[in-house]
Amino acid sequence: MSQCSPLGPAGKRNRLSSLQNDERRLHSLFTVPVTGNRPGSTPSTWESEYHIVIGYGTPVQNLTVGFNIGSGGQTFLQCKPCGDSTCNIPAFDQSQSSSIAPVPCGSPDCPLRNCTTGSTCSVIVKDKGVVQYGAAVVTDTLTLSPSTPITTLENFRVTCLEMGATTTDSSSGLLDLSRDKHSLAYRAPSAPDTVAFSYCLPSELSVDQGFLSIGAPRPEGNVSYIALRSNTALPNMYLVRLAGLDLSNGGPHIPIPAGDAVIALHSTFTYLKPETYAALRDQFKAQMERYPAAPPMGILDTCYNFTGLRSFGAPTVYLKFDNGVSMVLGIPVAMYFQERDNPFSVGCLAFASPVWSFPPGVSAVIGTLAQEGAEMVYDVRAEKVGFIPGRC
């Protein structure tokens, strides 16, 4: 089990960054090319809200990396040689590892259509003859926390970012837990009594850190499972069928248009199609009439000013899945507060409708705020994902 936390001063999330970048990060997730001459991603998808420490190479080099469940099927590491502007980030030194091996160009493990540096799976991107960045795909030994059920994994594929390429969150890379066959979720050994991975996301309302567990024992107790679905256009993502929404204290059921919901670590908020969000917003507003409205915060447009109050109430939001399972979102996760550790400030409904259209077959995105407080359990072999309310 590896501890995970936001990367930033004192492990706190940058709230302004969440508001300004949330929709941009989410949009980039749906526009990542699966293959090509670049290393299968865009700079905005190299960042993550949550980070752990891993080891790579022999002897082990410890690095702080983000982790994601929809990162285009590749694990990235900042590697040497690096450009002058990126060497301040701890980087993996390929020359110091005795177990590293380059992936050959043309190998099934090479994600590039065209290699530009000869026989190895690597690329150098130039602009007017000047090298912008390079990337090389290699395999080496991955080492996880000693408390994790799976501690080492040999021949784990990584895309090394070199010569000016860098992550955008000041970490040393991004660990892939997607549905791609090369991801850690699929490479980790499995058994009938284990799941691929599970995590608890750290909340700013709690002093406890979260965790990521690879090859975790199958949880016992109150686990609610939902079948995973597939979308050929989004093969690496975790998709479930979200059937509708309900609010406590009455109101008509809000159906979700045909399509699947993406479970994301790439966005803080939960996104709905315009007609679904409008129905949720209107019902929420009807139950919040007694509180003064506040201006929007970024993309969040249903906001209230609770400053000076000693107590307030808000409806609980129920995410209703097609098998009858519900995820219950109380105030701490259904609303986003200007001062995260002070609900008696400006608070907004943590749902929105993006300004761009969802990809075909997608009707919603379930963000990280909705997942806080629950242990999320990914049983990829059985093609299901579950959650344990109140576990974190």
From TrEMBL:
InterPro entries: Aspartic_peptidase_A1, PEPTIDASE_A1, Peptidase_aspartic_dom_sf, TAXi_C, TAXi_N. Disulfide bonds join C82-C87. Residues 50-388 form the Peptidase A1 domain. It comes from the Eukaryota. Keywords: Disulfide bond. It holds the Pfam family TAXi_N. This is Peptidase A1 domain-containing protein. Belongs to the peptidase A1 family. PANTHER family: ASPARTIC PROTEINASE NEPENTHESIN-2 (PTHR13683:SF638), ASPARTYL PROTEASES (PTHR13683). SUPFAM superfamilies: Acid proteases. Coiled coil: none annotated. GO terms for molecular function: aspartic-type endopeptidase activity.
